[in-house]
Amino acid sequence: MTTLDNVVSLDRRARRAEPADPILSVNGLRIIAADGRELVRDMHFNLPRGGTLGIVGESGSGKSLTCRAILDVLPPGLSVASGSIRYRDVDLSRLDATSWRALRGVELSAVFQDPGSYLNPSIPVGRQLAEAIRANLKMQRKAARDRALDLLGRVGFADATAVYHQYPYELSGGMAQRVLIALAICAGPSLLIADEATTALDVTVQAEILALIDTLRREEGLTLILVSHDLAVVSQVCDHVIVMRSGEIVEAGSTREILHHPKSAYTRSLIDDHAVHPIAVNRPQSADAPQRVPILSVRGLHAGYGIRTVVQDIDLQVAPGEILGLIGETGSGKTTLLRTVLGLIPAATGAIELDGQRIDGLTGKPLRDLRRSGALQYVFQDPLRSLDPDLTIGASIAEGLYLREGRLGVSAIDASVTAALRAVGLEPELSTRLPRLLSGGQRQRAVIARALALEPKVLLLDEPVSALDAVNRLHVLKLLRRLADERGIAQIFISHDLGSVAGIADRVAVLYRGQVVETGPAGALLANPSHPYTRKLLDSAPRLAVAAPATRSLFTVY
Amino acid sequence: MIRNLLRYPSARAAIVILAVVAMLAAFGPSLAPHDPLAQDSSALLQGPSAAYWLGTDALGRDVFSRLLAGSTVSVLASLLSVSIGMLLGVVPGLLSVFLGKRFEWVSLRLIDALMMLPFLVFAIAMTAMLGNGLTQAMFAVGILITPAFFRVSRAAALSVANAEYIEAARLMGASTASTIRHHVVSKVLPAVAVSAASMTGACLSIVASLTFLGIGVVPPDPTWGGLLATDLSALYDRPFGPIAPALLIVATVWALNALADAMRDAGTQEQRA
């Protein structure tokens, strides 16, 4: 109890007067797995009160594990082997469960990537918030409710009372993340850890959430650790940055220093990856491009769910070897449009033609024959969810081949699987692995390989790179471009990430509230947008920028 | 799964007990020291002795031999019920998710109706209609446990029905049967295995109850429940008599339930890993 008393009895005002004390200091932190593998090595930093620290690195770099170690919520099997984590003058590694309960969520608080999974689906969000307040601050029901409403207002809900009574499923990703932020700050914490808190959101929402975190940080005097795979996200809010790779610190320093004078090649590559890559824009446009016959064309399409029309009056064409980028924020109808083309949602009116044949309205055997032909392939947003967890990668890729030509024979199918894996730059040996044993980048390639094995004419890609870190994203984008150029595969590429689209698309269509508001060659359209919505999308994309002058020189990495 | 299972002490104990019971069921009649039907009029209602390990019943038959011989019938009868219940439950349970609204509605109502029927009364009615035999009785029990398998497999299938890999299979032109075979069965199997284990335990006690009541078995044939009944009627002469058959029934049912629990726990652990 002595440690607990120490924590609770700290006089905050007295502390504020002497900011020289680091609020959090991590020293020689080493995290190992059950089999002895070293996952984080010699992680160290001192974070002063009110400081903002960004930790950047690709998936598996150990950035999230560091945060989890600070909160003592490492995944089962992982443990801190050595090193110390001190919060104020408390050694966190010595705390017992009772003291942790008084600390975690009260003094140290966190927001994670997938807000939906942290909310109870059967209780209105306001009540969950009020319960947390009551539990942490020992408040009366009525007072907790008032504070919950106040907090919902603070995190940007205009009508807090309405949100209070809503269930999690009624909230969008961005709204759910706001609720989570309200939960995280409800007890007035000193330290907030935001672990990939904006990764799953689209650009406009991401910008809003980052601004919210920054505002709250200033108002509440929070110390902030922002973890992201995206250097741009971190650079907007944080004074200091630590770049991590395979469990180690690659580089650390003030944001300005890191951005303008990166010392390591890896940091430079992160910065370079972020610049928009005009691969396509500089390509010589072939003279016959406009005359090429489209392989897939959509004319006057209206579609939706039941009586609700989601997309209206869509006209799109894509020719062999051409990549059409389809951009728009969540809810703009991008996915609905693709699902209609695939025949998963019936088209209300309009025509969809593949290779000159009408494919809308097909049912039964003609639809199954079309699907088995493999001419039209869909790549899902989340490769892990679109691969059967019990089937090896090879079996997943072979499934379509068996369905199309079951009598082909095992050796011929094996050969096709191997060829498809090679085509996406994966070792054929991976075919015996289960999806969860692959990295995110490998999985995304495997899903593309599954589509390629059927030699498609058109590839529909739903946010194929949004879950990947910068390095893998670039590799996959290059792969897609090559497939278009070398195999003449037409592609429709959905993304909310303008950088990705500008990188590989020949043409871009901007979707807003179910309608195409602007379409044209990628370079021209993104350089010179005419529709206000396109301009807004371009403005909210995260850019590398030094947020504020780095005044807090107390931050040290040694 | 197996390795995870062996981490639970209760699962290890359960597997040992079930192995012994399986041995009894397979070789029990041939292991018996005496003919289970042979009567020895010089030794009626005796206590345990070197010749008769568990003593003799009112007709001078060796109780130990009857217990061993009864294992086969008791175990096979409950396995029969479980197989019938599994067959009639799992297949419609999976199809109710994938075959469309009409099949779903009809099958759900049928299962609701089945769930209303009381076990023992229905089994007794079946034997009254089809003749007094254990097969008939266990067939009835099999039908009555169908809802358990139906609901378990339906719930497991529902949880994956909207998975993206199922949609991906459909987009490659997979038929419903092929989708179920490749993607659904493996997800449903663990849950079905758990309920099969606990249902076997339940059926074993139902067999014991039925045979205790004298339903399903024609008198001279020994069963665990039947032995319990004869022992109870001779309680004054052999007060310890019911202990051995009761212990055997309780131990087997406990083992099956413990195994089912451990399987479920191991399964959830695996999902988290």
Helix segment tally of chain B? 10
Q: From the helix content, strand content and strand pairing of chain A, which structural class follows?
A: alpha/beta
Q: What helical percentage do the residues of chain B reach?
A: over 70%
Oligomer: heterodimer
For the sheet with most strands of chain B, the description reads: none
Query: What name does the CATH topology of chain B carry?
Result: MetI-like fold
Strand neighbour order, sheet with most strands of chain A: 6-7-8-3-9-10
Question: What would your notes on this structure say?
Answer:
The complex is a heterodimer of chains A (558) and B (273). Chain A is an alpha/beta fold. The radius of gyration of chain A is 25 Å and the shape is globular. Chain B is an all-alpha fold. Chain B has one domain (15-23, 55-272): Orthogonal Bundle (MetI-like fold), CATH 1.10.3720. In chain B, 75% of the residues lie in helices and 0% in strands. Chain B is elongated and about 80 Å long. The interface between A and B is medium-sized, with 26 and 19 residues. Chain B: It is a multi-pass membrane protein. Chain B: Keywords: Cell membrane, Membrane, Transmembrane, Transmembrane helix, Transport. Chain B: Belongs to the binding-protein-dependent transport system permease family. Chain B: Residues 67-260 form the ABC transmembrane type-1 domain.
